[in-house]
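Progress note, sequence design subtask.
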């Protein structure tokens, strides 16, 4: 529990900063100056080591979750994929600058093979990232994501409580904005609108 609280502190700061997300055109991004993001070295769904430098020059739409999540993670990943497709239909050149990235908080079960099957359901360019427990714990803390793995039950099953947040990062890895995650038919459209707003 203490670990969860320590990870929650940067998240609370980010969420407070994000209250100013609705800004007139021309103003600074709502997350400008937020202390989140940074270097990482993880394994993608093809089993290859990738680092933050592999995404240099690209906008990154990053979500932390896990494939065994019974509810919100598949929904959020689906909205990410649909939003990017809408943006692609509107402006393919700019949309190709965006890489959707799903980072697991459950590396014990989310092997590259499992992630490959999972992310392929949502968008052909979605990247799934995993790693050791230590690597995932480190990157989650850097990116302001609080989570807590529950103890397995008698069958070995368990859940992972985690912050539900999709964040857009810029070409240099700088945090730009928390994406809207409203429910309903407009969810993907609202996210696509935000992508169109911030991706240059």
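Output:
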């Amino acid at each position: 529990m203490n670990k969860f609280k320590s990870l929650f502190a940067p998240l609370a700061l980010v969420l407070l900063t994000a209250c100013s997300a609705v800004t007139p055109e021309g103003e600074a991004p709502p997350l400008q100056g937020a202390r989140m993001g940074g270097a990482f070295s993880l394994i993608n769904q093809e089993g290859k080591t990738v680092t933050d430098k592999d995404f240099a020059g690209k906008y990154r739409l990053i979500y932390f979750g896990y494939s065994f999540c019974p509810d919100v993670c598949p929904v959020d990943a689906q909205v990410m994929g649909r939003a990017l497709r809408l943006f692609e239909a509107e402006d393919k050149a700019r949309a190709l600058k965006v890489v959707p990235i799903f980072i697991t908080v459950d590396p014990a079960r989310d092997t590259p093979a499992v992630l490959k099957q999972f992310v392929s359901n949502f968008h052909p360019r979605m990247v799934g990232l995993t790693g050791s427990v230590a690597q995932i714990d480190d990157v989650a803390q850097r990116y302001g994501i609080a989570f807590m793995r529950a103890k397995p039950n008698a069958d070995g099953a368990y859940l992972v409580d985690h912050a539900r947040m999709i964040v857009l990062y810029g070409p240099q890895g700088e945090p730009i904005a928390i994406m809207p995650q409203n429910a309903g038919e407009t969810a993907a459209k609202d996210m696509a609108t935000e992508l169109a707003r911030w991706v240059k």
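The beta strands are 41-44, 49-51, 59-65, 98-104, 127-130, 147-149, 160-162, 166-169, 175-178. Work on this subtask will continue into the next period as scheduled.
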